[in-house]
């Protein structure tokens, strides 16, 4: 009730600790944690010890109690595409790798330099530290997702299934959630596991899916296995839900590792970077970006 009713800022007002400790203090039973909350939250945090910051847990729980989950019909790439559509013409360069952030701008891998008094580094933690060597970033979590295609859905509803055995994080028939994700007459199943695509793991996943969906999975066609290194920051307590993007005069860094590990956290950090850049320029700072 507290998470549902109070403002999001309330999560910052309590002393931080692990999610596991917070659930114990709240009187949640060991069985409920083992059978429901740990399996579910492991897929949210990408770790199965519930050592993630309780502040972040309360923020996530608030979002889930007050809202619903969804996927863009045109894929997650529709989010940056929508942002890009609002930009003036000629300001966005794609396929232009950056070698370094310099004192005068940005050095590209082709040897040319883009001069800029203000530079905002908006990347994952690994690339952020490559471009800004004095930056401190948290450890990260890795996840692998297997995609299988079959002719008939094994579950005709948009349900996320979690696994209390820990063999997988979660699975769902993605085409039931977003019908545009598969051709007509095909069901697309998405299944995530912690860590990388280890030898033999794909077959073990299929065996577990046969048990969960109560069907024969021997004919399921694996269409992809996507490993995302550094998919989320490891948000160990005490974890600030937001922090400044200012690194030094004219240099800023944003990303979910500067806020909360999520798409929402990344966008909130980017919005904060924009506000701080505008505020600093308004104080007679940088004249060009």
Q: What is this entry, summarized?
A:
Helix 2 packs across helix 4. The chain is an alpha+beta fold. It starts with a helix and ends in a 7-residue tail after the last helix.
Summarize the structure in words.
The protein has 289 residues and is α+β, with helices and mostly antiparallel strands. The protein has three domains: 65 residues, no CATH class; 78 residues, no CATH class; 94 residues, Polyamine Oxidase, Chain A, domain 2, CATH 3.90.660.50. It contains nine helices and eleven strands. The strands form three sheets. It has a five-stranded antiparallel beta sheet. A three-stranded antiparallel beta sheet has the order 1-2-3, with no helix packed on it. A hairpin with a 3-residue loop joins β1 and β2.
Q: What are the main properties of this structure?
A:
oxidoreductase activity; single chain; Polyamine Oxidase, Chain A, domain 2; Amino_oxidase; five-stranded antiparallel sheet; alpha+beta; globular; three-stranded antiparallel sheet; 3 domains; Flavin containing amine oxidoreductase; 9 helices; about 290 residues; FAD/NAD-bd_sf
């Amino acid at each position: 009730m507290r998470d549902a009713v109070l403002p999001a800022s309330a999560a910052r007002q309590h002393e931080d600790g692990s999610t596991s400790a917070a659930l114990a203090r709240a009187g949640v039973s060991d069985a409920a944690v083992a059978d429901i909350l740990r399996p579910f939250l492991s897929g949210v945090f990408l770790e199965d010890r519930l050592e993630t910051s309780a502040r972040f847990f309360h923020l996530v729980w608030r979002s889930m109690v007050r809202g619903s989950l969804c996927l863009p019909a045109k894929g997650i790439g529709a989010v940056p595409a929508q942002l890009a559509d609002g930009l003036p013409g000629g300001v966005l360069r794609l396929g232009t790798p950056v070698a370094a952030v310099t004192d005068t701008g940005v050095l590209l891998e082709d040897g040319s330099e883009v001069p800029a008094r203000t530079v905002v580094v908006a990347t994952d933690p690994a690339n952020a530290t490559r471009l800004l060597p004095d930056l401190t970033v948290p450890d990260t979590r890795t996840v692998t997702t297997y995609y299988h295609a079959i002719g008939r859905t094994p579950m005709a509803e948009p349900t996320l299934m979690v696994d209390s055995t820990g063999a997988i994080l979660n699975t769902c028939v993605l085409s039931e959630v977003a019908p545009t994700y598969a051709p007509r007459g095909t069901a697309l199943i998405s299944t995530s596991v912690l860590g990388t695509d280890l030898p033999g793991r794909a077959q073990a996943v299929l065996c577990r899916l046969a048990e969960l969906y109560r069907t024969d999975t021997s004919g399921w066609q694996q269409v992809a296995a996507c490993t995302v290194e550094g998919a989320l920051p490891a948000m160990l307590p005490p974890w600030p839900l937001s922090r400044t993007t200012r690194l030094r005069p004219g240099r800023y860094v944003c990303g979910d590792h500067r806020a909360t590990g999520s798409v929402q956290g990344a966008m909130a950090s980017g919005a904060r970077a924009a506000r701080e850049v505008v505020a600093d320029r308004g104080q007679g700072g940088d004249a060009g970006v």
